[in-house]
Design goal:
By secondary structure, this protein is an alpha+beta fold. The protein is built from 33 helices and 15 strands. Strand 7 and strand 8 form a beta hairpin.
Length: 751
């Protein structure tokens, strides 16, 4: 808990680190004169001294506290400090004399106290330290005290002490009237203060609930004290929900409390969905904390988000003005000097892109504190005025707000000549701007420029997959598009999306791994908002058209199992006749498909088994943990992380089921035993296309397929097309691009 001795605590802590023990005593004496009853502070500092190897010094300083408290009549607190003195300074020469006085003053009225002293004498064997520690172990728990048993009994309240018999009676939640020997209690139970969060919940619930309303920061500090002054949001929530705060109220309570914590000098609040929360020894203002994080931030975008959060949470004033001036000066230096404007830097951006970010950020800082002054030495107008420059740099700005501002600035600088640039910027990888670009162009009646961009997208959907999604979504849902644009029917647009998904998957298989996020976005769009795209696309379709759409969904390799299943079920629900036909076909094909063999090498089988093991033992437990953490954060109504985790869990379970079904049908084949005179599983073939181009492929199972190394599955169109062919024979192979003629040049056994 924050106390009146925070400055002294910070000073003494630093002096201990520096081994300036003489100065420690000076500051200690000042603190003792200021707040002698704040014994937790003195006990904590004494422990630090002892751990630094200065136990006897700690004992001498605690002796001062004991005498002061006894003088003030704080008998029980004096006894507590003496008990700690005996622990950290076992050779202190005055401890027994102090014990006889202090313990006598505090507990002489206790029936059986003399018997406690007698037992301590017997146990000490002449050792003053053993005497003090044994006597304290008998006296430290008194009626009304709270204890905690870590091994299972949990929280308990001391009800009675029978000093004559040497016994305590404690009520635990699971066991009332539990008797324990006085000396043994100190070994098995932790003594809790009345301000401990567990005690507060058990004995002062109404008061605690009121504090949550009136002074939420004090509640956080109470929890932090129980967690040794360092915790995280998940652990803190577990202490308060649902006993103190109802689950439905947590998100709102935390939002308000977080703002107060951000301003607290003795709280350091981390970032993220489960931030760390520290109670500081030395006061740290929000400005100090922000400056420290700013200096430690590596990337410009990290600094941008940090400063936005700070401006949002802070209040106008001299401290904020000084920090923002410091930040503005630092940002100026980070983009100063000479250099190639459009060459990518180690930070990931370009000098031009970073300068645009800094210019807009400094503008925002000036809006927050108008006295902030800095001459950047360049003008953002010069960086975005020409069409060529803004089109080159828009992606390197890397922040949606500042990307939009770049286009707005370009528009202002080029009145009457900006539409062409806006149209061409639609082809850039700035998805958060496409709605804005389209709106501006259509509002200004520049439909032709937008139509030109969309025609480019439609002509090359493989190159512009996310733009294709944007156009298709608008077309399917009936949202505004430029005048004169040829918009196909909704079902054809949906089919175009399925085609695009397959094309993206093919590019990923060829090594373009950066497209994995694009594929994820396309998949998610297919089932977003209760699969609204498909629902709309089916509106007005007849059964034949719906059957064609179903066929395309089932053949779409790029859809995950869960997405494909969701879309398939939706079509069949809308067209029950298709569901009946599918059931009949499935029944007819069940025997053939259910017993169909999957060919694999021993290595391929082990690879697939390893994938299953990884899903079951690594990925599913990991996503279960993510779901638990997301649920712990409170409001789940708009929790994107929870939605994503649940979707991933569903996909993983489907994948595990699919693998287990597959493994039942695997037939292991050793390539050394195959007939290498004809193309087939376990062979390496050389093929020539009719255009003269040659290709070499190794044919193995689906688990070993590796497009980069030209290893294809025996189930692939090429392998199926040349299956059983000998050198010199020809075959027509059906591929996504159409039929291709191949001649088998050679066949040999795969290595």
């Amino acid at each position: 808990m924050v106390t009146s001795l925070n400055k002294e605590t910070a000073r003494i802590t630093e002096l201990i680190k520096q081994e300036h023990l003489g100065e420690v005593e000076t500051v200690w004496t000042e603190a003792l004169g200021k707040a002698p009853t704040e014994i937790d502070t003195f006990l904590s500092l004494a422990d630090k001294l002892a751990k630094a190897g200065h136990g006897e010094k700690a004992g001498n300083l605690l002796e001062q506290v004991v005498n002061k408290l006894d003088e003030l009549g704080e008998r029980k607190k004096a006894a507590t400090v003496l008990g700690e003195l005996a622990r950290v300074a076992p050779r202190n020469p005055n401890q027994k004399a102090l014990a006889e006085t202090v313990f006598g003053n505090a507990y002489s009225d206790l029936a059986g106290y003399d018997k406690c002293v007698e037992r301590a004498e017997e146990a000490s064997n002449g050792s003053d330290n053993k005497f003090v520690r044994d006597l304290w172990s008998q006296l430290m728990f008194q009626p009304g005290d709270w204890v905690f048993h870590d091994a299972g009994w949990g929280l308990g309240e001391v009800k009675e002490i029978d000093a004559e018999a040497g016994e305590l009676k404690i009520d635990f939640l699971s066991k009332e009237d539990h008797k324990v020997k006085l000396g043994a209690a100190a070994k098995f139970f932790r003594k809790l203060g009345n301000d401990d969060i567990m005690v507060q919940r058990a004995a002062h619930m109404d008061e605690l609930k009121q504090r949550c309303k009136d002074d939420p920061v004090s509640v956080i500090l109470t929890v932090l004290k129980a967690h040794n002054n360092k915790s995280n949001l998940k652990r803190i929530k577990a202490e308060l929900v649902p006993a103190v705060i109802e689950s439905k109220n947590w998100a709102k309570w935390w939002t308000g409390t977080r703002k107060e914590l951000a301003q607290h000098q003795y709280i350091k609040l981390g970032t993220g969905t489960n931030p760390t929360i520290d109670r500081l020894v030395t006061a740290m203002t929000l400005e100090d904390e922000t400056r420290e994080r700013f200096d430690n931030a590596i990337h410009l975008l990290q600094k941008l988000e940090l400063l936005r959060r700070y401006v949002r949470d802070s209040e106008k004033g001299e401290a904020r003005r000084d920090l923002l001036q410091y930040v503005a000066n630092d940002l100026k230096e980070s983009v100063g000097g000479d250099g190639e404007l459009d060459v990518h830097r180690r930070s990931g951006g370009t000098l031009a892109g970073d300068r645009i970010i800094v210019a807009f950020l400094v503008d925002d800082l000036r809006k927050a504190e108008k006295e902030v002054e800095v001459d950047l030495g360049y003008s953002v107008d010069d960086l975005v005025k020409s069409s060529e420059d803004v089109l080159t740099r828009i992606e390197d700005v890397r922040d949606a707000d500042y990307q939009q501002r770049s286009l707005e600035r370009h528009m202002k600088l080029n009145e009457g000549a900006w539409a062409k640039t806006f149209g061409e910027s639609f082809l850039k990888d700035v998805p958060s701007l496409w709605d804005y670009i389209a709106k501006k162009l259509m509002e200004a009646d520049h439909h032709a420029e937008l139509r030109k961009a969309l025609d480019t997208v439609n002509a090359d959907g493989e190159k512009y997959p996310l733009q294709t999604l944007w156009v298709s979504r608008r077309g399917i849902l009936g949202n505004e598009l430029p005048q004169g644009l040829d918009v196909p029917p909704a079902n054809e647009l949906f089919s175009k999306l399925l085609w695009t998904i397959n094309k993206v998957l093919t590019r990923i298989e060829r090594g373009e791994n950066q497209l994995k996020e694009v594929l994820a976005s396309l998949r998610a769009a297919m089932t977003e908002r209760n699969s609204r795209l498909l629902t709309t696309a089916m509106d007005g379709l007849n059964e034949d058209r719906a059957a064609h759409l179903l066929h395309e969904v089932e053949r779409c390799r790029g859809l995950s199992d869960i997405h494909q299943s969701t879309l398939r079920e939706l079509i069949m629900k809308a067209f029950p006749a298709l569901q009946a036909k599918a059931a009949l076909t499935a029944a007819e094909m069940h025997d053939e498909e259910g017993s169909g063999e999957i060919l694999a090498t021993e290595a391929g089988l082990r690879k697939r088994q390893a994938e299953l093991k990884n899903i079951q033992e690594e990925e599913l437990p990991d996503v279960a943990k993510q779901i638990g953490e997301a649920l712990a954060m409170g409001d789940v109504s708009e929790n994107a992380e929870l939605d994503a985790a649940r979707e991933r869990e569903s996909r993983l379970k489907e994948a595990a089921k699919e693998i287990m079904d597959e493994l039942k049908r695997v037939k292991v084949i050793d390539p050394a035993t195959v007939d290498a005179s004809v193309a087939g599983f376990g062979t390496k073939v050389s093929l020539k296309r009719e255009d003269g181009k040659s290709k070499n492929y190794t044919i193995l199972g689906r688990y070993e397929a590796d497009h980069e190394n030209f290893i294809i599955s025996n189930e692939s169109p090429i392998a199926q097309g040349i299956l059983g062919k000998k050198p010199g024979e020809k075959a027509m192979v059906e591929t996504p691009e159409g039929a291709v003629a191949y001649e088998v040049i050679s066949v040999e056994r795969a290595e």
